[in-house]
Each structure stands twice: as structure tokens, then as C-alpha cells.
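Incident review: delayed structure delivery

Summary: a single-chain prediction request sat in the queue longer than the usual turnaround. Root cause was a stuck worker, restarted by the on-call engineer. No data loss occurred. The affected request and its eventual output are reproduced below so the record is complete for anyone auditing the incident later.

Affected input:
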Amino acid sequence: PTLMPLVSSLTASSLFGESRACPMKMTFPCVKSIFEGRVATTGTSLQDFSAVASKRVTWPDSLARLGKRLVVASDHTLNRLYPAAFVDSLNYEDLNVPLFERDKYAYRQTDKWMADPSIDVLLLHIIGTDKVAHQYVVRGPEYREKYLEVDNFVRSVAELLTPKDYLYIIGDHGHNKQGGHTEDAAYIAHGPLFPQGKHENLDASDMLFLLSVPYALALPDEYE
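Output delivered after worker restart:
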């Protein structure tokens, strides 16, 4: 609650809990676990900085085939994995701005997308909460400032949602005191079809089910 008061308060009206990250603890395999419902292989983890488009059944691509209009703000991660799914995108690495300036561009772009009624789904990969743990003391002043900033961003998005909308907050891994990745992660699933104040610990691959619920998506045959 002291790090992210708004996000913490959402647990009272949401399904929430730990979401035990994928064993690799690296971004690409963890994201694949979330959006494809599988524990990624060792070979996948080698793509962490050279990803190619996923050839599996994926959540973004499934929504796009339904006619949903998706947008994404991310580094190369989501942009490379699911390029055909998005009608608009922001890639932080194309901005040529300092690392800790990237989130501000995501906030501004989100404001534009939220004002566009034709957009159905926003995927917002806010990377500052990860980068600050790698460069500053975990739970130090810079760390706390960044997490409060992101909490305020979540608040600005949540305030624009209607009772029919869904809000997911998902971490792909945690950090230890030295800023290294751990398997500790968390999720919040907020919306009409989810119970309120329900604490249930799940795996990262279970997130695909939760993300699919509002759209009645059929899950992949190989879903784990």
C-alpha cells in the first residue's frame, strides 16, 4: 500500500494474488506465458533480445481476428511478438530518449488512445518499474518515486473506465534486494465477471484464461 496505494486498493474489488512468474524469469518467456498460456522453453529465453513473431495461438492475435482494435505501448517485446495484432503501436526504442523518459511517452500516448472510442484494448507495458530496480536501491527513494508515479498513471486510466470495462495489472517477475529478477509476481483482474476481493494465487500461464474470459475466447488446444 505504501508503494502503490491505488493498485493496492483495487484488490478489494478484484480477483488478485501472486502470479508466479515463468521459471526463466526473463521478459520474453514470461510474456509468452501470460499471452500464450504456456511455460516457455529454454530456447525461447534466448530470444530475450532478438524475438521473432510468435507462431502459436496468442491472445492479441485472437482478439484481432474477432475484429477488436488493439494498441500497444512497449519496448521491442510485444511489438515483435505480436506485430499483426495492433492497429497502432509505440515502441520505446524508436524514441531515442533517455531510459527513464520512456514511460512519459507511454502516458501521453495512452491519453490519446483512451480518448479514441474506436480502440477496444490497450496493452501498456510500463518498463520503468523494472529499470528503476536495476539501477537504484530496491525500495529506496528513486524506486518509491517511480512506483508511485506508475500508481498515479494506473489511477488516471482507471478513472476513465466504465463499469463494463476490464482492468488487468500483471507483473512478469519480481526483484530481489540487489535488483535481480525473481519468480515473485502479482496480478489483479478487475471487471464485471470477476469476484470482488477474492485472493487466489495462480501461475503466469493462468493469466491467458483470465484475459480470455470477457471475450469468451476458446483456449488453445495445447493450453497447459
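Verification: The two ends are 33 Å apart (CA to CA).
Action items: add queue-age alerting; document worker restart procedure.
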